[in-house]
Every structure is written in C-alpha cells, then in structure tokens.
C-alpha cells in the first residue's frame, strides 16, 4: 500500500522547536518532490515548503522562511521539517505530499500534481 505518514507533532510553547517526519511506504521518495502543507483551524490549507529530488533544493513560503528547514534522507525514505522559533500562528495540522517526477525546482504554495498525501500531524503552539 502506497502511503505517507507524518509524525512529530505535539504541543510546544512559543519560541520552541519541533521536527516533523514524513515517511513513505510502498514507494521510494527518490522519484518524488515533496511538499509540506498546513491547515490552521478555520483557514484554508497553506503550502509552506517543498524540496526537490534533484539537488535537494528547498523552498519556503514567506510565513516560515528563516524558521523552518526541510530536508530529505532517501536512505530512510523520509523527509523532515525542522521548525524553530514557533509562533501561535503556526498552529495547525501539517501534511506532507509527494509529486512524481524529477524536479530541480518546486513552488511551495501549490499542491498541483501532488499524488500522495499523508493524514497529517497536529502542531499546537501555545503557552
């Protein structure tokens, strides 16, 4: 069964850090660009980051630039999202998604072409 599973969410205080993982099973991430998305309560889903599978180029939305870092470990078939300096407005359900093909660039704000989605992991930033 082809699936993505996110993990690492939880409750963290403002200014804290979390690392999310996106693990693939049933397929290899070598042939996919990966995007990270989030959906805050009562808001539309927002694309926040993506990473290519050519040269591991990373891109970020302005809302997370400088605070979040995306990386991939193809040997572990996993992509990570390191989140630092978290703010209450970062609260939401975080999803990863995979787009098949070989990409040297990606656009973090779009979900176009994303074929596989995880079920999400909840991040709550609150004191």
Give the topology, please.
Layout: E1 3-7, E2 10-12, E3 18-25, E4 32-39, E5 46-51, E6 58-60, E7 68-73, E8 78-83, E9 92-100, E10 116-117, E11 121-125
Parallel strand pairs: 2-11
Antiparallel strand pairs: 1-3, 3-8, 4-5, 4-9, 5-6, 7-8, 9-10, 9-11
Which terms summarize this structure?
127 residues; mainly beta; seven-stranded mixed beta sheet
Radius of gyration: 13 Å
Global morphology: globular
- Please tell me the overall pLDDT: 97
Distance between the termini: 39 Å
The H-and-E topology, N to C, reads as EEEEEEEEEEE
Content of β-strand = over 45%
Low-confidence stretches: none
**Number of DSSP E strands:** 11
The main β sheet shows up as: 7 strands, mixed
How many distinct helices? 0
Q: What class would the helix/strand composition place it in?
A: mainly beta
Please provide a written account of the structure.
With 127 residues, this protein is mainly β. The protein contains no helices and eleven strands. Strands 2, 4, 5, 6, 9, 10 and 11 form a seven-stranded mixed β-sheet that branches. A four-stranded antiparallel β-sheet has the order 1-3-8-7, with no helix packed on it. β4 and β5 form a beta hairpin.
